[in-house]
Design a protein that fits this description.
Immunoglobulin-like, Rossmann fold, five-stranded mixed beta sheet
């Protein structure tokens, strides 16, 4: 498992009975986690004194209960600074497990020996965008949500990257890639974090089971002749690491050469020493 174990501002303190206790900078949050199917002792005092607790409803969804938590605060990872705020469906605007992928592709960008153009699709609040830009890449950031792109720009300002070569676009990712193919634009690397289900700004429907493989094939048409890397993240139960490898091999390796590795990504748990699984990633590297 690829483990994001270099954080200082974030920590999974403990896990028990469907929930995880996390430290986000100076604040403690309790959030549900479907992977936590065990029961622990809950010895950490943070369980009794959190700043926020997301209670999942039996009917689906849930709601936050707050105890002295600001509307917004920041955490840092290296030179990157992220603005956090709790919003619907338990999220804070950051997936800290992705830091293990940021480190991986940042090294590739820094050692490429040439300018690198990165396309970040379903780019959310810009964690990967900022990591790639900080490593020296020119980044095109695409997300269907105007609010998420605005948030990503705020993170860029907080990270001192407001003048970095980042192109910010509110667009449907499939339609954007189709237009880039017609324009003849090419990218050295592609990052994508596709949702299980979503709608584009024009009501376009995305269902990952039927959409992801055709989309990967589509994206190969905007890759440079000698791609540097491709990263595909999955938080969908059915898309296991092996499935990511199969799709990337069929769509990308067959066309460009190179190799692919896929694995689970996770976060260390301080109380138990376990690694909490947090999804899967497929990593392609060109020859």
């Amino acid at each position: 498992m690829w483990t994001a174990d270099k954080w200082t501002d974030y920590e999974v303190l403990d896990t028990s009975d469907g929930e995880k206790l996390e430290r986000w900078g100076d604040y403690l949050l309790i959030r549900p986690d479907p992977q936590v199917i065990w029961t622990g002792d809950r010895k950490d005092k943070g369980w009794k004194h959190p700043n926020g607790h997301y209670h999942r409803s039996n009917k689906g969804g849930g709601e936050w209960e707050f105890f002295d938590l600001p509307d917004q605060w920041t955490v840092s990872y290296g030179d990157l600074t992220f603005n956090l705020k709790p919003f619907s469906f338990k999220h804070t605007g950051l997936f800290p497990e992705q830091a293990v992928n940021w480190d991986w592709f940042s090294d590739l960008i820094k050692n490429a020996g040439h300018p690198v153009k990165v396309l970040n699709l379903f780019a959310y609040t810009g964690g990967a965008t900022l990591a790639a830009a900080a490593a020296g890449a020119h980044v095109t950031h695409v997300d269907a949500s105007k609010g998420m792109v605005t948030w990503a720009k705020e993170n860029a300002r907080s990270s001192g990257l407001e003048e970095a070569p980042i192109r910010w676009l509110v667009d449907d990712c499939v339609k954007f890639v189709e237009r880039e193919i017609r324009r003849g634009n090419k990218y050295d690397a592609i990052i994508m974090d596709p949702p299980s289900y979503g709608r584009g700004p024009g009501g376009e429907v995305w269902k990952i089971e039927s959409s992801i493989f055709p989309f990967i094939n589509l994206c190969t048409q905007v890759l440079a002749e000698k791609p540097l890397f491709m990263l595909i993240n999955s938080y969908t139960t059915g898309l296991q690491p092996a499935v990511l490898s199969y799709m990337i091999n069929m769509a990308v390796v067959k066309r460009f050469g190179g190799h692919v590795e896929s694995d689970e990504i996770g976060l260390p748990v301080t109380a138990s020493g376990l690694i909490l699984p947090c999804g899967a990633s497929g990593r392609y590297v060109g020859d």
